[in-house]
Amino acid sequence: MSEVDDTWTGEVDGTWSDESELTELDVEGEEDPEVVTGGQPVLAVVGRPNVGKSTLVNRILRRRAAVVQDTPGVTRDRVAYDAEWAGRRFALVDTGGWEPNSSGLRAAVSAQAEMAMSTADAVLLVVDATVGATETDEAAARVLRRSKRPVLLAANKVDDERLVADTAALWSLGLGEPYPVSALHGRNSGDLLDAVVRTLPDSPGEAGTVAGPRRVALIGKPNVGKSSLLNKIAGEDRSVVHESAGTTVDPVDSLVELDGQTWRFVDTAGIRRRVQLASGTEYYASLRTKAAIESSEVVIVLVDASEPLSEQDLRVLTMVVESGRACVLVLNKWDLVDHERRYELERELDRGLVRIRWAERVNVSARTGRAVRKLAPAMRTALESWDKRIPTGQLNSWLSEVIAATPPPVRGGKQPKVLFATQARVRPPTVVLFSTGFLEAGYRRFLERRLRERFGFPGSPVRINVRVRQKKQQKKKR
C-alpha cells in the first residue's frame, strides 16, 4: 500500500518585483457569502424502467446531468436538480424505474419512486409511446389518480410525426392529454415544459427544497456504507441500499436536519478507479462524483475500518486534498473492529495518511447509529477552519519566530529570505510568502506544520504559495 501522493498540490507560484506587491493581496474581507434562496416547487419524473426518464430530465435541464445508458435500471435513487423554464424555477426529481410487486434491489428502487410521487408538488409520468400502455403503466396511473396531485403524461420516443396518432390510445390511462415528445431529439419538449410551469404551484408544498445549507459530499469506495450513513442520519431511506456494490450511480441530494442545523448531503457513487480509466456508466458516475466534491464545502470520506486501507481509499483521499475542501474522515463499521484491528488500523493510518493528518476523525457505525451525532460538531470545526483568516500582523510575527529558529535551506549557494507573508484567501486558507528565492517543498511542509501548531486549522487543508522576487534586468553597456 502506497502513501497519499506527496507532491505539491498548491496553486501555481509566481514572482514579484515591486515592493507595492507585498500588500496588494492583504485583503481582510470575507469571501463567498452564503446566498439563501426561497423554496421551489418540486416536479417528480416517474415511470417504468427504460422509458427515457433520465434522457428527458437531461433535455429539460439542457445539459447531461443524469446518467443515461441503454441498460434498464441505471437510475436507482431519487435525484434532485435545479431546473428553469420561462422564468420559473423548480426542482426536478429524477427517479428509478417503478415496478409493482418487485423484490430485492428493484423493490428498493420502486420505493424511492413512490416516495418521490408522494412528496412532489406535481408528477410527470413518462410512457414509451412505441410500446403503448403496459400493465406497469396502468398500475402507476392508478396510484397517481389517487394521489390528489397534478399529473402530466409524457408519451416519449415520438421521434416521427407518424407516431403522434398512436399516442391517442394513452388517454385510456385516465391522466388527461398525453404530450407526444422525443427526449432524445427535443421534439415538443417546449410544449411539455409550458404545461409543467402552468401546473406547478406558485409556492412549494411541504416538499419544497430550500437552498443555502452547508453542502456536504459523502465519498468513498463502493460498498463502504455511504448510502447507509445518509439514511441513518436522515432517519429514513433517502438512498437505495443493497449488498451489491455500486448501487448508487447519480449523486443524491438530501436536506438533513442534524444537531439542530440543516445540511445538504450529497450521496455519491463509489470511486472504483481513475476517471480516465473508467467507461460507460462508471465514467459518467465518476465525473459526477468529482463535480459533487467541487461543489461541496466539506467532504466526508468514508473508510471501512474493518478492512485494510486500500489503494481506492488513498485515491479518494488524494481527490479531497487536490480539491481543497474541508474534510472529515469517517471510519465506518466500527462495530466490527476488535482490539487487534484497531492497532493495525492506527499503523495503516499513520503510514498512509501523511498528507491528510489534519482531517477531523470520527469512528461510526452506519448500521447501528454509533457516534453518528458526532459528525455535526466535526463538520462545524472543519468549516470554521476552512473559513478562518489570520491577521497579517500575527502571521508575520509567527513567521519571523519560525525563520529565526529554522531558516530556509540554502539553494544554489544562496539562502532565500522570506520578507513578508499574507493570507490571500480562505476556502481553503491560502498563505502567500514573498521571498528572494524558491522554497523547497519540504520546507513548505515544515512551515505548514508549524502554522497548524500555532493557529490550528483542524479539518481544513492549508496551502502555502511562494512568490519569488524577480531581478530587474540591467541593460548591458556597449
From TrEMBL:
Top-level taxonomic group = Bacteria
* Residues reported in the UniProt entry to bind GTP 2: 220-227, 267-271, 332-335
Biological process, per Gene Ontology: ribosome biogenesis
Organism equals Haloechinothrix alba
Where the record annotates domain EngA-type G, the positions are 41-204, 214-387
- Keywords assigned by UniProt? GTP-binding, Nucleotide-binding, Repeat, Ribosome biogenesis
InterPro entries recorded? AAA+_ATPase, G_ENGA, GTP-bd, GTPase_Der, KH_dom-like, KH_dom-like_a/b, P-loop_NTPase, Small_GTP-bd
**What protein am I looking at?**
GTPase Der
Q: Per its UniProt record, what Pfam families does this chain match?
A: KH_dom-like (PF14714), MMR_HSR1 (PF01926)
Q: Per the similarity annotation, which family is this? A: Belongs to the TRAFAC class TrmE-Era-EngA-EngB-Septin-like GTPase superfamily. EngA (Der) GTPase family.
| Biological function | GTPase that plays an essential role in the late steps of ribosome biogenesis.
Binding annotation for GTP 1:
47-54, 94-98, 156-159
Which HAMAP family does its entry note?
GTPase_Der
Cite the record's note on assembly: Associates with the 50S ribosomal subunit.
Q: Name one GO molecular function term.
A: ribosome binding
Keyword field contains Nucleotide-binding: yes
Gene name of the record = der
